[in-house]
Amino acid sequence: IVGLHTGLIAANPLAVAKALVPKRDREQGVCAIDFGAETTSITVFEEDNLVYLSVIPLGSQNITNDIANSLQVHFDTAERIKIGFGQALASKTSKKDEIELSQFVEGEEAVVSRKHLSEIIEARSSEILDFVNDELKKLGKASKLPAGAVIYGGGAELSHLNQLVKKELKLSTRKANLDHFKNYFPEDVPPQYFGAYSLVLWQLDSIFGSRQEGFGRGLPGFMKKLWDIFVP
After folding, report:
1. Phi-psi region for residue 5, left (φ > 0), alpha (ψ -120 to 50) or beta?
2. By C-alpha distance, which of 39, 18, 15 is closest to 30?
């Protein structure tokens, strides 16, 4: 396109990790895990340097597909069931807890055990985490990162996922804390938009320098305007 040029090339997982994981964690050694819809990205830092980045071709949509196939419901219905009742640890649910599918599908009389739903979710989530652990083993960092794991992305909203990650990876695990970043993201930005916002911040950093300096004071308003333009 005439008049346009490439100002910066940045890997999306790296931009998001740099934005959401505090510098102190990146210095100590941390694995940032972005649970996306179609992929799961892992970004490993030590001494505030990127030491490894990998993308696994499995994500939260695979969990939804498993639910749809097992319960014999449409994908959209499976997604609503997952969001409304899903948990990543089957041990946290009771066989007595039931889900009436009639609240999702008119005329549907079937009743599903919430524990069964959690078993479906845990099985696929554990498979994804097995791949994550394999990548850490290649790096020689399996269970050897002092700052543990930080999880984020749309898939990370699953209840008890942080506990499953801790169990499978043998690393202290927590969801990304956006408090240190709230001055730069509008409060209502869904997790699936973190990547786009992080790339904008990365570009602004490259132009103006640290977010802690002058231009950062006007950034919240700018980002809010940008959000309003693209997501009315």
Report:
1. beta
2. 18
Helix (H) or strand (E) holding 34: strand 30-35
- Model confidence over 12-60: pLDDT tens digits? 788 788 878 989 999 999 999 999 999 999 999 999 999 999 999 999 9
CATH 3.30.420.40 fits 12-59+124-212, yes or no: yes
CATH classification code of 60-119: 3.30.420.40
What's the order of all strands across the beta sheet hosting 173-175? 49-56, 40-46, 30-35, 149-152, 173-175
**For 36-160, where are the alpha helices, taking DSSP H only?**
60-71, 75-85, 114-139
> What does residue 168 show for φ and ψ, rounded to 5 degrees?
-80, -40
- Alpha-carbon 231 to chain mean position: 20
**Parts of the chain belonging to CATH 3.30.420.40:** 12-59+124-212, 60-119
What three-state secondary structure class fits 28? Answer: helix
Q: pLDDT tens digit string along 197-206? A: 666 665 555 5
Residue 25: how many other CB atoms lie within 10 Å? 21
pLDDT, tens digit (0-9, with 9 covering 90-100), for 54-85: 999 999 999 999 999 999 999 999 999 999 99
pTM for the whole thing?
0.80
The yes-or-no verdict on residue 7 having pLDDT over 50 is no
What the block records as the tokens of 75 is: 């994908």
Tokens standing for 16?
């998001």
